[in-house]
Amino acid sequence: EFTEFRKERGNMLLSRKNQLLLEFSFWNEPIPRDGPNIYELRSYQLRPGTMIEWGNYWARAIRFRQDSNEAVGGFFSQIGQLYMVHHLWAYKDLQTREDIRNAAWHKPGWDELVYYTVPLIQEMESRIMIPLKISPLQ
User: Are the C-beta atoms of 26 and 58 separated by less than 8 Å?
Assistant: First the structure.
């Protein structure tokens, strides 16, 4: 039955990417959360050779974004597409997301960290995700 399912699923896939990610040491470890929450996965393709610089800036920047416990996890690619960084954020809803992100701009030093990290990015993407009922991240 599973073999048949995999064949059918394979016919629907256009592409697939895998990455082996490591967690940034300065970021909190993901822990189960009560919900309901939505999650934002922000992915950044960095310029080659800039991972250490990015990590140094974000080790400071994460302090600006932990007031509401929205920072879930920060990861970087070890295998697969290299120089990829992923940040996972939890919010009660899209309005809360907007409010928290806007509030960061009023904190002294946030704008400077953004100014120095943006040139390190080649491409970025944001995805909003809703957890399944079985997910420990509600």
Answer: yes
- Give the predicted TM-score (pTM) of the model: 0.85
Per-residue model confidence as pLDDT tens digits over 7-42: 888 888 888 889 999 999 988 788 888 889 999 999
For residues 86 and 99, what is the distance between their CA atoms, to the nearest angstrom?
Answer: 21
Question: DSSP letter string over 49-95?
Answer: T-HHHHHHHHHHHGGGG-TTS-EEEEEEEEESSSSEEEEEEEESSHH
Fold category of 19-129 in CATH? Alpha-Beta Plaits (3.30.70)
Give buried/exposed letters for 64-97 (b at 16+ CB in 10 A, else e).
bbeeeebbbbbbbbeeeeebbbbbbbbbeeeeeb
Q: In whole angstroms, give the CA distance from residue 14 to residue 134.
A: 27
Q: Are 85 and 23 in contact (CB under 8 A)?
A: no
